[in-house]
Design a protein that fits this description.
Layout: E1 4-7, H1 15-26, E2 30-34, H2 42-53, E3 60-62, H3 71-83, E4 89-91, H4 98-111, E5 117-119, H5 127-134, H6 159-176, E6 182-184, H7 193-205, E7 211-213, H8 220-233, E8 239-241, H9 249-261, E9 268-270, H10 278-299, H11 301-308, E10 322-325, E11 333-336, H12 340-349
Parallel strand pairs: 1-2, 2-3, 3-4, 4-5, 5-6, 6-7, 7-8, 8-9
Antiparallel strand pairs: 10-11
Region (Disordered): 294-330
InterPro entries: LRR-containing_regulator (IPR052201), LRR_dom_sf (IPR032675)
Keywords: Repeat
Length: 350
């Protein structure tokens, strides 16, 4: 029997439903589990976490919109992730994690051998969380398990066990490629320009990240300039979402110069809901379109081979799999991405 999907949204979960979910996870019959906005007691949440710890078929876990609502649940999820080895996409959008909660999750995230997509949008994060997230985007693509503050998250008592687990995880990283390929940090206004500058440096040197969603953060032109440098330096970043981030024509001109003068992997740049003229948006869109066409002609069979190996950004979790490159309303371009989450969802629904 092929693994299927369980998708429940915004409903209270009964004891029978929780039992069915746990049974499916233990039987490795679930590939996609989405409990977006569901309401359940702490005891049932713990039962699900214990079941997903040993699940080997589960590839996508969606706990968006407040399911992980307390420090105790964060600890239970972290413990499950320390054991699980199959989850590739983890969505926690709209969870009140805060920096302290992410610090509890970070060791498990850093050691997970398969995780490539992480959604931490609207999670009340600040600069301390950015330090930890940068540890998931190291230059060699192998996650470090440390923040950028110089101190380890591991305690002295468990260091030997952690080292053994890290070795096993690093062996698995050789198989899975290691490091995040999609990162979503939408709507975290507590992050300061200092935090965003650290993230820009990490993205510039990351050998993995392909999709970066920073929409609805008060970035402004200064941070956008740093991100332009990061994009110009990155060999892999294909999608950058800057919708509603307080940008002006100054940012757009910098981004236009970057796209026009430096060869990058960038294919989609979302600039909607900013104070940017339609003309500048259209110029950027046209240049990205030209670059993609040239890559398709030059790449030929090699590009097809690369996508067949699974080189694809994960799904955008905020309502659409379409990436719109803003332009004049009469001439708008839509770029489609076949993300990890989208492909899993399509496969399980079929």
């Amino acid at each position: 029997m092929l693994p299927s999907s369980i998708q429940i949204s915004g409903e209270p979960l009964s004891g029978a439903e929780v039992r069915d979910i746990c049974r499916g996870l233990r039987d490795n019959a679930v590939r996609l589990l989405s409990l977006r906005g569901c309401r359940l007691c702490d005891r049932d949440f713990g039962r699900i976490c214990r079941a997903l710890a040993g699940a080997t078929s589960l590839a996508q876990l969606n706990l968006n919109l407040g399911v992980v609502s307390s420090p105790s649940r964060i600890k239970q999820l972290a413990e499950a992730l320390r054991t699980n080895r199959s989850i590739q996409s983890l969505f926690l959008h709209g969870s009140p994690l805060t920096d302290a909660g992410l610090a509890l999750l970070n060791p498990a995230l850093a050691l997970h051998p398969a995780l490539v997509a992480l959604d931490l949008g609207d999670c009340m994060l600040g600069d301390e969380a950015i330090n930890l997230i940068c540890g998931l985007l190291p230059p060699d693509g192998a996650k470090s398990g440390r923040g950028r503050t110089g101190g380890s998250m591991e305690t002295q008592e468990s260091r030997l066990g952690q080292a053994e687990e890290a070795w096993a995880s690093l062996m698995a990283l050789d198989l899975y490629g290691g490091g995040l390929k999609e990162l979503t940090l939408s709507a975290n206004p507590g992050i300061t320009p200092k935090g965003w500058s650290r993230l820009a440096i990490a993205v510039a040197h990351s050998s993995q990240v392909r999709v970066l969603n920073l929409d609805y953060n008060p970035l402004g032109d200064h941070v956008a300039g740093m991100l332009a440098v990061a994009v110009a330096s990155s060999r892999t970043l294909e999608v950058l979402d800057l919708e509603g981030t307080g940008l002006t024509n100054q940012s757009a001109q910098t981004l236009l110069d970057m796209v026009e003068n430096y060869p990058t992997a960038l294919r989609s740049l979302v600039l909607a809901e900013n104070s940017i003229s339609p003309e500048l948006q259209q110029q950027i869109c046209d240049l990205l379109s030209e670059g993609e066409e040239e890559e398709e002609v030059a790449g030929g069979a090699g590009d097809t081979q690369e996508w067949e190996r699974g080189r694809e950004p994960a799904a955008h979790q905020r309502g659409s799999s379409s990436w719109m490159c803003p332009s004049d309303p009469s001439s708008q371009m839509v770029l489609m991405t076949s993300g990890l989450g989208d492909s899993l969802l399509a496969e399980t629904e079929m």
